[in-house]
């Protein structure tokens, strides 16, 4: 089959790789119908060293089950399914607590002999725990929306949930990428009254307004912080959803959070030290979040998509074929595209 | 009156200062019956630069109301009262939410013309919001226990509450100082089943066992982390209460917390950057806590002291007169004494 491989910074290739086969009784093989490029794919795209041992890319996909191992009971050939961005058994103690990202039998796509999601098919380990059946056909118009369950919608929702967003709450979302926009949707779902989106790309922040942002702040740094404080009676918002991952975004988060408030970070941190010292200690600021256990939220979020009450798939502003994926990476990296759909 | 002044590192003096007087209608004047030295007093004791403008020391005291301003309604002369380690109006939005440390009309003892607690008396701003009446006489044997309501018991409790300690929980307490021991008491009050106390001073950790610790780990760093993991099936505890304030203690906290768990820090951080990067992000670790709004917890905790079900005053292992307070600082700093009571 054809799959996407990263040979180094700026070097994405689509090549022939081995067809996926059942290796363990708990595996399934899924023919991929829809996949996409993630903002987090851009970190290695920008910085990975050159290698002859390329990385298999992609961790967001949905498709049709083609074959199942002998121990798989929950899905069968022909089922349309979505895969969260980590696989997990969904039965261990961590999984039962909704922390599938810490599953002892789980892992990530594209490493240790597991396929990536940006290809024509994938072997899915722990298929019963991982795959979630979608009650639609493979030609459904809802597929782009449902694909967001694999990562960005659940990641934005994880930010809002771990921050403890509740009805009437005030929330700042930092970052107007796909995850930031999903965080806006999520804050609104949980009943936030004030949702301030910090971002500089008007096409994106306009979509954020459609999704529920009540205000947009384009300024950054001290100026942006001052602007959010103006909008909140000087205090900042009770919750801040940090959807970027850069140190500046964390500094900005602490700057706009109200005393006693919570910053939840879901942008993968590109820094090892967090500037979170005595001042924020005196203000009783909490820093929570982390990698999203998408599997934990899919059942809860899917109905909102099926009824059309949320349309997270609007973040996809370009669709390409698999063979053109290198240009998709380029377009996202150049901020020409917000998020790119890939049809294998 | 006589009061304690810090002129620089290792230079504590008891001197004559102006007697406290009502300055605002919301003030009260309290004759101090019992005070103490705090672990946090040792930071400036160890490091403050020499000055001719000495700092008024002390933020934990109880005593008898001598005089009240015209707007004070909640306490009257003769009342025995305890003061939390910050004063607050207890009516603003932050106070009503239980975050009296962020009160717009609040502040700390010993600065801006407000007396410290290590003296013979103090003017108490926002007396109605700040002072809590104690239903005992000034000769009560419970006074040392009740004095812990001004800081350490509430600080330990803040750690446990912000960490979300619940019935059946597993908790590591880092630090065997007075706050760490109060955190043990608090974790037990909230129903924790496993309470591991990390500390190296056996007299203190023995007291910790009396207070409810189910295990003690004397090792530090990697060795200490490994030991806690041994005691918890390899996973670490769900909650970690960091009662030290040093960077090593935070590193240790992240090392012993279970995936998805919470570290609450109540030791004033002596560092501005927290080593809290990608690895802990992938484990969904939360960092919460902060300076304790002691006032928020006094009403809830006092009954446990009055009934004798907890005896936090056992942390006091030395009693001195005010004139000898310099030796009290020395003894605590040399770890000769755990916590020193001061009788003015």
Structural class of chain A, please? Answer: alpha/beta
Main beta sheet of chain A: strand number and arrangement?
7 strands, mixed
Instruction: Report how far the terminal alpha carbons of chain A are from each other.
Output: 10 Å
Oligomer: homodimer
Number of strands of chain A: 19
Computed over alpha carbons, the radius of gyration of chain A is 20 Å
Low-pLDDT regions of chain A:
none
Mean pLDDT of chain A: 97
Number of helices of chain A: 12
The largest inter-chain interface, given as chain pair and residues per side, is: A-B, 32 and 32 residues
Which shape of chain A, going by the Cα principal axes?
A: globular
Strand content of chain A: 25-35%
Helix content of chain A: 25-40%
């Amino acid at each position: 089959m054809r799959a996407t491989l990263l040979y180094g910074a700026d070097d994405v290739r689509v090549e022939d790789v081995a067809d996926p086969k059942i290796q363990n009784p708990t595996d399934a093989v899924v023919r991929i119908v829809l996949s996409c490029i993630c903002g987090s794919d851009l970190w290695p795209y920008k910085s990975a060293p050159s290698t002859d041992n390329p990385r298999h890319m992609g961790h967001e996909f949905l498709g049709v089950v083609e074959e199942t191992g002998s121990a798989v009971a929950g899905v069968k050939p022909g089922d349309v399914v979505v895969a969260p961005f980590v696989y997990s058994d969904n039965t261990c103690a961590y999984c039962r607590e909704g922390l599938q990202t810490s599953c002892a039998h789980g892992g990530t796509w594209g490493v240790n002999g597991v396929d990536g999601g940006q290809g024509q098919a994938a072997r899915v380990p722990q298929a019963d725990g991982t795959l979630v059946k979608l009650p639609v056909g493979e030609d459904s118009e809802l597929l782009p929306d449902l694909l967001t369950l694999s990562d960005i919608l659940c990641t934005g929702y994880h930010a809002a949930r771990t921050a403890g967003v509740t009805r009437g709450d005030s929330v700042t979302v930092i970052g107007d990428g796909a995850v930031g926009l999903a965080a806006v949707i999520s804050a609104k779902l949980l009943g936030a009254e004030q949702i301030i989106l910090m971002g500089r790309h008007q096409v994106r922040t306009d979509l954020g307004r459609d999704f529920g942002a009540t205000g947009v702040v384009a300024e950054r740094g001290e100026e942006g912080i001052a602007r959010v404080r103006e909008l909140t009676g000087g205090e900042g918002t009770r919750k801040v959803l940090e959807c970027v991952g850069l140190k500046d975004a964390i500094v900005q988060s602490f700057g706009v959070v109200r005393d006693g408030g919570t910053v939840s970070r879901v942008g993968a941190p590109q820094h090892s030290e967090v500037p979170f010292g005595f001042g924020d200690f005196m203000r009783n600021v909490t820093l929570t979040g982390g990698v999203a256990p998408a599997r934990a939220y899919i059942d809860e979020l899917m109905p909102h998509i099926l009824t059309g009450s949320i349309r997270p798939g609007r973040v996809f502003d370009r669709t390409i074929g698999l063979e053109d994926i290198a240009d998709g990476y380029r377009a996202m990296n150049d901020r020409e595209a917000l998020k790119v759909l890939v049809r294998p």
